Amino acid sequence: MTDNPNSQAPDDAGPADEPARAWSKGLSLTGAALLFMVLRLLAVSNYDWRRASSIAGTIGLDDASRIVLGTLLADPTVTGIMLAVLVPISLSHQYRLGKPSADNAGNLAMLIVVSLFAAVLLITYHMWWMLIIAAALGAALLALQIKGHRDAQGRRFALFVAHRTGLLMILAALIVAAIVHVPWMPLERIETRTGTVIGYVMENPPGFLKVLTDKDREILIINVDDVRSREELPVTR
Dihedral angle at the C-alpha atoms of 188, 192, 194, 197, nearest 10 degrees? Predict the structure, then answer.
């Protein structure tokens, strides 16, 4: 039995189904974004309910972009692994989509972003193992593309992987959100009248600092009048 080239795949949607599919996709992305925020909140609190509850009060709706970018920049090693996977996946998907156009602008933008992040991370920390992982995965994806041109089974498997590129990216982001314990703001050394505090300033309203300590992940409220100096500490691998 041969495949009918004119037959429509079961998961292809007609024009009448487009609003429903768009609504479903919007709900899925919203759910993924909410899950990302929850995982970040739990991860930086070392999965402690009371600490997470206290940190939650410092987060506002306008902090979303800062949390996402801060997460990507917080742990170079974890981010390097994620980028070493996402760059070849995005490149392979762009190759399948063809020349840049309005229809594939989203994937092209993602490819540029992850490639730029990977290049800067590689230059800064000389993490050459990223190239090895990316090259190995890229070779595997290329072999998959070649197999997809040779037989129907390979083509179906190639399409199965390609159609889930977005899902793989979301999954990678959620994994990073769950395992990176470094908050989305810089680590600081805060000299006070009573001693030195190493931690992250979660909130800075008038009159005091709300600090999450680096070692014990305790929440401290420090009067600004007691602060002698603040020094931002560099990010290390």
Answer: 0
CA dihedral 130, 132, 133, 138 (to 10 degrees): 120
**What is the number of other CB atoms lying within 10 angstroms of the CB of residue 220?**
16
Question: Radius of gyration (Cα) for the chain, nearest Å?
Answer: 23
CA angle 19, 21, 23 (to 5 degrees): 65
Alpha-carbon span 56 to 194, nearest angstrom: 27
Model confidence over 169-218: pLDDT tens digits? 788 889 999 999 999 889 999 999 999 999 999 888 888 999 999 988 88
Question: Kind of pairing, strands 219-223 and 227-232?
Answer: unpaired
Where is 161: in which H helix or E strand?
Answer: helix 152-162
Q: From residue 20, how far is each of 10, 82, 122, 135, 167 by CA, in Å?
A: 16, 32, 42, 39, 19
**How far is Cα of residue 176 from the mean position of the Cα atoms in its chain?**
6
Secondary structure of the chain: what % helix, strand, coil (to 5)?
60, 15, 25
Q: What strand order describes the sheet that includes 219-223?
A: 219-223, 208-213, 195-203, 187-192, 227-232
What is d(CA 185, CA 183) in angstroms, rounded to the nearest whole number?
A: 6
Percentage with pLDDT > 90 across the chain:
35
Q: Which two tokens stand for residue 64?
A: 């979303």
